[in-house]
Amino acid sequence: MAEEKNKRTDVNKLGEFGLIDHLTEGFVSYHENTVKMVGDDAAVLDNGSDYRLISTDCLVEGIHFDLAYTPLKHLGYKAIAVNLSDIYAMNGFPEQVTVSIAFSNRFSVEAIDELYKGIKTACNNYKVDLIGGDTTSSPKGLFISVTAIGRVDKDKVVYRNTAKKGDLICITGNLGASFLGLQILEREKQIYQSTPGGLQPDLEDQSYLIGRQLKPEARFDMVELFHKANLVPTSMIDISDGLASELFHICKQSGVGAILEESGVPIHPDAEKKSIDFGIDPITSALSGGEDYELLFTIDVNDIEKVKFLPDIYIAGEIVPKEDGIKLHTKGGNIHEIKAQGWVHF
Ligand code: ADP
Ligand code: MG
User: Fold this and answer.
1) What's the alpha-carbon Rg for the chain, to the nearest Å?
2) Which pLDDT tens digit goes with each residue over 268-301?
3) 129-137 and 313-321: which strand pairing?
4) Number of H helices, E strands in the chain
């Protein structure tokens, strides 16, 4: 009994996803209009004629951003964009956001103003309404929590758990660039801090990679294209933690396996080059880097004609039976098992 009381489990033992499963286990639904609870990019509520989508994300200074190289205006923009990305990942469109902040007295009104300039720019670009939030103090550092609310037609909602054998795996845009942008910023920070007089780095030719890290965009354009093309993906997730981790979510929740073609995974030439400079295989940057905020989705093979003519979409593999596992077919012709590359945040 005493042993049970004194039991202390390190959160890293469960990992982020294990911890979420553990904490949310056993919660029941009391309301018929709760269509989807925990487990997807957004919760889904029945709104009568359509579905309402709700998603929350929290950004913590020192964990998700470093103000040594993150302009507050960019941070505000990113806080909104990454949340909206979860609404697009349900094939829906965001309409409102709430923003809650906590900050220490290290931050001036002018500093918080900068953050809100970015938030406003994002609200205008994505056409969402800031409808509320909360403002409070913190003993140390800045916290930002954003909740995005959106809507989707009932016959257009796309979940993570509905991929099926034979579906094609598709990826938008390109992957790995944001991770490499972060590596550049981290490296420059270290050089800056260890150089007497603090030499300012010249990051001009790295602007694409750094821009992908500091000012990511959510792919509303893709969801608009899907709707126009009358394409409803069979499953979808946004790529926030790296391709491997997101593919695992789709496969685990759908009860399927996947074969990913290295040659089909889109990687920007700048990302490819910088990855090699850092001694990292570019496919590893795409699989394990994060914060691309692109979309990973699957389509029924009969919909290939609809996708073929859409820009910026790459077919990168196929959904296979669960028993076949989750594998990468490399450019060299080898087949490797893809490891669940979640990160540990704590
Ligand atoms: P995403 O990366 O798309 O933002 P997450 O991995 O953060 O998704 O979350 C996965 C699911 O777990 C979501 O449905 C989210 O709402 C839910 N979730 C995360 N943390 C908690 C928590 N502390 N309590 C309840 N639900 C949570
Ligand atoms: Mg997501």
Assistant:
1) 21
2) 999 999 999 999 999 999 999 999 999 999 999 9
3) unpaired
4) 11, 13
